[in-house]
Amino acid sequence: MLKVRILFLTLLASLLYAQPLPLFFSGNKSLSNQELYEALEIDTPAFYEFWKDSPKVGLKNSKDLVATIKEYYKFKGFFQTTAKSLQNDNKIVIEIIENEPIRISDITTVSKLDIQNQIPFKIGDIFESDKFTQSKKDIEILYGDNHYCKIDSNSKAWLDTQTNKAYISYDITPNEQCVIGQIRIFSSKTIEPKFVESLLYFKEGTLFSSQLIKDSYDSLYANGGISKAIISTHIDDNSNKVNIDVKVSEIEKPTRLETGLGYSSDEGPMVSLGIKNKNIFGNLKTIGINSRLTQSKQNIQIEFNQPLSNKNYFGANGGYENEDFQGYSERRFFSNIYLNQRKTSNRFTQSIVLDNSKTYNSTDLNLFPEGGIFLLSPKLRWEHDKRDNILSPKKGYFFNTEIMGSFNSFLSDASYYKIKLKGGYIFPLDKSILALQASFGSLKIYDGEIPASYRFYAGGVNSNRAYSYQTLGPKNSSGDPIGFNSILETTIEYRFPIYQNFRGVIFNDNTFVADGDIPKYSNGYHSLGLGIRYTTPVGPLALDIGFDVDQPQKNYAIQFRIGEVF
Q: Do 163 and 177 form a contact (C-beta atoms < 8 A)?
C-alpha cells in the first residue's frame, strides 16, 4: 500500500510539474514585460483581448527561459544581470536583478566619409550589440551609395565588465571609387534584354552605387510581367570595376483576374474587378480592363502600357466614369495618351487628356450649369519621391507638381490652366515620426466653361479631417459646397507607437481658400485631431477624428481609410 501511495504521489507531482502555468516577470525596470515575452518568443494577448488568459509555460522549461532572459539582457548591454524562476500561487515568476548596464565611455572614428548619422550611440548610452552590428552594415551601405564597392572595416567594441564601460572604434579604409564594368542580362524568350536594360538605373562605365542597385530592383519588380529578378555584383580584385549579372524570369501566368474590396469615409464601400495581361505579345507590354464601383463613383477603363528604351514608357487609357457630387452629377468619356520618363527618383509625364463630360441633376443651374463640355488639355507632371515606403513611410520626402490647360478653339470649349503642387517630409524621431505636408492648387479660367468638378473642394481623409468629404467652406442655398478656384492645405502629424501593431497619431490640418487664383490666408480653417493605426501587410488601417479649432462642437468628423495620409 505504501508503494502505491508513493507511486501515486510521484505521478501527481510529475503531472503538476508538466502543467503549464501563467508566466510573470519581476524586477525588470529597463525592459518591458512585452519585450521579454517577445524575446522568449511567447505570444501575448493584445490589450483588447481581455477574454484571453496570460501566457503560460511549463515549469520544466523555466530554466531554459531564465537562460534566454539572461542572454537577452547581455544583448541589450546588461552583462551583470541575474535571474531565477520561482513557482508560487500557481504561477511562475522570473525574478530579475538587472544591475548596472555597460555604458559607452568613448567613441573614435577614422573615416573618409562622415558616418555620424550611421552611429546610433553617444557617450553615456547603454551599449547594445544589435545596434553596433547594424551600424557597421549602415556604414557599408553609405560607402556603397557613394561609389565605394570595397572597404576595409576594422570596427570593434571593447567591453570592460569590471567597470561597466564600453569603448567603440570605427576604422574605415575604402578603396578607390568603383565603376560599373560589364553588364550581362539573362532573360526569358519573350523578353528581349534591351527591355530589361531599359528598367535598370546603372550602365557600363558609370560610377557604382548600391542605391542604384536597389532602385533597379524596385524598377524591375514594379513591372508586373517580371516574377523574379536577381542582380549579382562581381568585384574585380585587380581593378576598381564591378561586373553585374542581371537575371529575370517572366511571370508564368501573365493573365490575371484582379478583384478588390475596401471602404473609406470619403467614398464609402468599394468594389473593383479587372483582368490584365502583364506580358501580352512579349517585351513586358501590358493591357487590361478595370472597373471600380463606390457609393459615389462608377468607373470602367481600358489601359495599355509599353516600356521603351532609356527607361521610358508609352501608354494610353480611356473609359467611362459617372460621379455624384453634392449638388450635381457628372458623367464623362475620357482618354489619356502619355509618355512617362523615369530617372532615379524622378518621374516625368507628358500627356494629352481628352474629357467629354456632361453635368446633370443640378440643384443650382447658375453654380452647376447642366450640359456637355469637351476639353483637350495637354498635361505635364513631375514627381520626386525619396520615401522609404509609399503606404507607411518612416522617413524621406516627396514633391510633385502638375499643370494642365487648354485654349478655347474647335478642339476645346475653354481657355484655362490648373496647377497643383504638393510636398512632404517625414522625420524619424527615435520610435516616433514627425510628418509635414503642404499642397497648393490654383485654377484660372480665361474664356469658356469647364466642368464644376475641376474646381477645388476640401474636407475628407486626404484634406482637412474636421470636415466630411468635400464639405468645407461656403455653400449655396441648398447646402451644397460651391468649391474654390485656389487652395492651400498644410498638415502636421506626430505618429507614435502604442502597443504591438497599434500606433497613435496627433494631427493639425489647415486649409486656406479663395475664389481667386491665390488663396486668402485670412480665410482659414484650422483643425486638431487624433487617430489610431493598425499595421497590416497592405498598409495601416487608419481611424481619425478631427475637430475644427474655432467650432469643435459643430464641425467635426470621423475618417477611415487604408494607408497613411502621406
A: no
Q: How many Cβ atoms from other residues are within 10 Å of residue 64's Cβ? A: 12
Which residues are CB-contacts of 192 (< 8 A; sequence separation ≥ 6)?
Answer: 282, 283
Please give the Cα distance from 486 to 480 (Å, whole number): 18
Provide the CB-side half-sphere exposure for 213 (13 A, CA).
Answer: 23
Between CA 133 and CA 118 the distance in angstroms is 11
Amino acid making up residue 554: K
Q: Which residue has the cell 468607373?
A: 299
For 13, the enclosing helix (H) or strand (E) is helix 2-18
Cα–Cα distance for residue pair 298/171, rounded to 1 Å: 61
The x, y and z cell numbers of residue 226, run together, are 517580371
CA–CA gap between residue 141 and residue 154 (Å, rounded): 15
pLDDT tens digits in sequence order for the chain, 566 residues long: 444 444 443 433 443 445 788 889 999 999 989 899 989 888 887 666 667 777 888 766 778 889 999 999 999 999 999 999 888 778 889 999 999 999 999 999 999 999 998 999 999 999 999 999 999 999 999 999 999 998 998 999 999 999 999 999 999 999 899 999 999 999 988 899 988 998 898 989 999 999 899 889 988 988 888 999 999 999 988 888 999 999 999 888 899 999 988 888 888 899 999 999 999 988 999 999 999 999 899 999 999 999 887 778 899 999 999 999 999 999 999 999 999 988 777 899 999 999 999 999 999 999 999 999 999 999 999 999 988 877 778 899 999 999 999 999 999 999 999 999 999 999 998 789 999 999 999 999 999 999 999 999 999 999 999 999 999 999 988 889 999 999 999 999 999 999 878 999 999 999 999 999 899 888 899 999 999 999 887 778 899 999 999 999 999 999 988 877 78
